[in-house]
C-alpha cells in the first residue's frame, strides 16, 4: 500500500502513517546508519554552500533568459557565493556555452537552498515535497537577511536526522512505484526529493564526499 501522510507543519518532527511496507523498518534504521557517518558540515560551510548554489542558480537563470548579468556583478552583490565554489560550479560559471542540462541542473539547486535555509533556522518547516519551492522567497531571504543566515540558531542533529529519515522513506516509495511500473503518488515530486537527498547527504558528509561527488541512493 502506498504511503499516506499526515504532515504536520514540520519543524523537525513529522507524523507518518504508512501501509504494509516490508522495508519500512529497514528505512527506520537508516537514522542509526546516518549517525555512524555523522560528520556534519559546520555553519560557515553550510552558509557558503548555500550562497554558492544561489550564485549558480542565478547565473543559470541569466543564461536561460539571455540577460546581461555579469559574473563581476554577481561577485560584488553575493561575495559569499564565491568563497567555496566547487570545481564543477566554477566550470559552469566560466563556460562560454554551458549546455541545456547544466542550466537545468543549476536551477534545481534552489531545492538544496531550501533545505539549507531550514537547517540554518531561517524557515520554520520543510513542506511535503509535492511541489518546487518558492524561488522569489528564498532569494529575498538570502539577499535581505544575510545577518540572520550567518547567525541564526541551527537545527539540532536530531531534527536533521528525522528530516533525513523522512526523506529517505519518501524516496524509497517513489523508487518502489517506478520499479513496479506504478504511478508515482500525486503528493510527491521526485525531483524535489532527489535534490533534498543530495543536500542532506552533503550536509552529513555522507561517505566523505565533496559537493560535486555527493552520492544519492535509497
Task: Report what the structure shows.
The chain is 56% helix and 3% strand. The protein is an all-alpha fold and 218 residues long. The chain has one domain (1-218). The relative contact order is 0.17.
List the helices and strands and how they pair.
Blueprint: E1 4-6, E2 15-17, H1 24-28, H2 30-36, H3 43-64, H4 71-77, H5 87-94, H6 100-108, H7 110-119, H8 135-144, H9 146-151, H10 157-179, H11 190-203
**Order of helices and strands, N to C?**
EEHHHHHHHHHHH
Q: Which secondary-structure class do the elements indicate?
A: mainly alpha
Sequence of strands across the biggest β-sheet: 1-2
Could you estimate the helical fraction of the residues in percent?
55-70%
Number of helices: 11
Q: How much of the residues is beta strand, in percent?
A: under 5%
Quote the distance from N terminus to C terminus. 18 Å
Number of domains: 1
Radius of gyration: 18 Å
Mean pLDDT: 82
Contiguous low-pLDDT stretches (5 residues minimum) are 1-37
**Sheet bearing the most strands, described?**
2 strands, antiparallel
**Total number of β-strand segments?**
2
How does the overall form come out from the CA principal axes? Answer: globular
Amino acid at each position: 500500500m502506498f504511503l499516506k501522510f499526515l504532515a504536520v507543519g514540520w519543524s523537525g518532527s513529522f507524523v507518518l502513517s504508512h501501509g504494509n511496507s516490508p522495508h519500512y523498518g529497514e528505512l527506520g534504521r537508516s537514522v542509526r546508519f546516518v549517525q555512524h557517518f555523522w560528520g556534519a558540515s559546520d555553519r560557515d560551510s553550510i552558509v557558503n554552500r548555500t550562497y554558492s548554489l544561489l550564485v549558480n542558480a542565478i547565473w543559470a537563470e541569466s543564461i536561460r533568459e539571455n540577460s546581461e548579468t555579469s559574473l563581476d556583478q554577481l561577485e560584488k552583490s553575493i561575495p559569499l557565493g564565491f568563497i567555496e565554489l566547487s570545481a564543477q560550479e566554477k566550470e559552469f560559471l566560466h563556460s562560454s556555452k554551458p549546455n541545456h542540462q547544466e542550466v537545468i541542473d543549476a536551477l534545481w539547486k534552489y531545492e538544496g537552498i531550501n533545505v539549507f535555509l531550514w537547517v540554518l533556522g531561517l524557515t520554520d518547516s520543510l513542506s511535503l515535497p509535492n511541489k518546487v519551492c518558492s524561488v522569489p522567497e528564498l532569494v529575498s531571504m538570502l539577499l535581505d537577511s544575510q545577518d540572520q543566515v550567518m547567525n541564526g540558531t541551527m537545527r539540532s542533529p536530531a531534527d536533521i536526522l528525522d528530516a533525513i529519515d523522512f526523506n529517505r522513506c519518501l524516496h524509497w516509495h517513489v523508487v518502489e512505484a517506478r520499479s513496479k511500473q506504478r504511478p508515482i503518488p500525486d503528493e510527491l515530486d521526485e525531483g524535489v526529493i532527489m535534490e533534498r537527498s543530495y543536500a542532506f547527504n552533503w550536509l552529513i558528509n555522507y561517505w566523505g564526499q565533496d559537493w560535486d561527488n555527493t552520492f544519492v541512493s535509497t
